Amino acid sequence: TMAVRIVTLSIDKVQTFLFDTISEHTQKSQMNSGTLQNIISSSRIISEDLFRMIGVEGNDGFFSGMVKEILLKCSGVCIFSTDLEERQIKESLRKIFEFYYREYDGKLFIKYLCFETEVASDTDKLQVIRKCKKRLKSKSCLNEVIRENRQIIFEPQYSADKRVWTDEKKYPMFEETINKLYSKVLTDNERYFRIAVIKADLDGMGQLFEGINSFEQYKRISEILSKYICLDSLAATTEAFKKTDDDFKLYPLYIAGDDILFAVPASYIVTGVNLCKVILREINDELEIEADYEEKFTISMSIGIEFTINREPIRYYYERVQRQLECAKITDSEGLKSMQPHIRICMNQYVFFDCIDKDAKPQSWSHFIHDLKILKSAESEGFKVHHFMYGLLSKITDPAVREHKLKYSNAVFYHLIPSYFESKSKLGEGELLLIDLLLKQVVEKKGRSSVIKFYDKDGRVKEKFEQYIRLLLLFSDERFHLTDHIPDYDVSNFDIQKKNIRTNVFNRVLRYLYQESLFNSVTSGAVDSDQIKKMRDLFVIDTKYKNQSGKDVQVYQTLRLSKSLLHQMKSLGADPDLDAKLIQLNVLKTKEKYEVSVETRKAGCKPPPSLYFDEKRFLDIAKSTNLWKEDYIDTLLIFNALNDQLIKYKILYPTTKNKKDGGVTKHGKNRYKNNDKNKPVYR
Fold it and tell me: Which of 312, 277, 345, 302 is nearest to 181 (CA)?
């Protein structure tokens, strides 16, 4: 077997070059119709122009007619064999280096290497490719290139021959400048409007190529990736999307290697992500054909999204979108490690997952789009979403609240007490759906039941909750509209959600207030847990009664304290002596009357009565412990408010199951069947 010489070239500093190019053209020639053509040329320099310069494409390159076999040809990298002498090869490589270094002011740096080896089989070719890639990454390769070209690098001359190929290809589906992304739907100000910058990056490339054992397969897969991560692929996909929606606009910033960067109107964020999904799906469809029965070739994608103004300098939003992309790349979950392919989308440091397979889970991106539809629907019904979100964020980011477990949960729940549902209007239903989607952000599954959780070991639950509110706040701007062709969320479908709303907005919150806020959150080494329980039993008791069908129904008995009374006690500084007198004045039921009422209601298969006030026990506990504080009163205030609302909610929105069991009587008294032992019915 005769030995051949292997030549490898790769373009280094690609990201820096493309960034500088788009920065220069985008900022200096913003209104120039030639901007798009310059950006297109920049992307082509990394791929087609390099291949023509080498001579593996066209007939005007340094190695034209001298290439024996192309081993690898993908964006920014070329590996081939030749029978040329080493002296001739080195001379041509230095000329290519010099052209790129001088033509692009040192922004593009060609790394190269040349060695002799025997290539007898496809296995040898695959080993050669891997050897080339490994050596290209080594410091010795870089040092050798610098040593051979030190005169050009350190003593630059300015007489380099210009060797430029012109590209006449047009792309009418792209906008010619960023300013052409303007949409009347968003704003009347054509000079100053919001855009979404989307940066996508393929994941699992290294793992994919490491698993390939055939040279032909390696070559075909490289060709598949080059076929779809290129300007022509982006153009074809954009054109297909424009056929569905002629108002969709896209401005490419660059596409090369395994990176895609483009801008769309802010209202088309979902379409922008869908476009990336289509490209990824097409790649994986072709990779699936390449795979045999034993192996599976799939790759995933990370996407960073950043919102900016069309006039903002690219250096600012480029760095921000890169941070979002990096955040998406480092985020993974146990459930996704084996699930391929999928997309991770990051906005405002909040990562969503999306699966190419619609039936796969999790699908948090589609849940987010659903949430946005609810948000916009509530906004259209007159609910002041922006004000509501901003108020919640202001409360929970207050340092005095944020670092105090009970204050934090109380601040959240107090803000999320519904204000409008009692009128049974679209406004009230929109508000309930919005509260529901916020509370879902702090729910954790525990076995068959779900519980609210604000804190974990790393503090991530609280952090993610706040990030999500910020994200919704971003979209709650009344001037912002989603113009994507996604079916609108129909609030008239509220009936489908009414049972879930009862569980999520009322039952689960009341359970948290009872178990956590009135017990676990006030536990400390200095206070006996039995004392805490006795204090709670003065105001709320979790109990059961047998209904007329003979079934056990779980209920909460409460001490009937008005909202105004609780506010009064809080404003007076939670003084046990004073508060005991105030409660005694407002709760007239004695222990004797209570006990008689208990027996009467038990005999009639009715829920137990409201509690009486045990003043002596209250004072004993309040004075011997530090439990009776403003935060404790806050919790009682929230509990009572939600408890009263739940009774009204059941009357306004009875479920079918409840109706079969008697439901709500004409007098409004609640008799409810409850099959879930973990979901008590409240009085």
Answer: 312
* Residue 548: CB atoms within 10 Å: 11
Enclosing H/E stretch for 555: strand 552-558
Distance CA 235, CA 232 (A): 5
The residue assigned the tokens 């929230």 is 638
Residues 626 and 248: their CA atoms lie apart, in Å, by: 62
Per-residue pLDDT tens digits for 657-671: 544 444 443 333 443
Integer Cα distance of 222 and 126 in angstroms? 12
CA distance 218 to 226: 12
Residues whose CB is less than 8 angstroms from the CB of residue 105 and which lie 6 or more positions away in sequence, other chains included:
none
Q: Is 379 exposed, middle or buried (0-12, 13-18, 19+ CB in 10 A)?
A: buried
Per-residue pLDDT tens over the stretch 143-182: 888 888 888 877 654 544 444 545 556 788 988 888 888 8
Q: Decide if 331 contacts 316 (C-beta within 8 A).
A: no
Residue 662 in contact with residue 654, Cβ under 8 Å? no
- pTM > 0.85: no
Cis amide linkage into residue 362, ω under 30° from 0: yes
**Closest among 424, 458, 433, 643 to 555, alpha carbons compared:** 643
Closest C-alpha to 377, from 241, 271, 497, 266: 497
The pairing of strands 443-446 and 300-309 is: unpaired
Judging by DSSP bridges, how do beta strands 540-546 and 552-558 pair with one another? antiparallel
Question: Would residue 550 be called left, alpha or beta, if left means φ above 0 and alpha means ψ between -120 and 50 degrees?
Answer: left
The C-alpha angle 375, 377, 383, rounded to 5 degrees, equals 75
Residue 105 main-chain phi, psi, to 5 deg: 50, 40
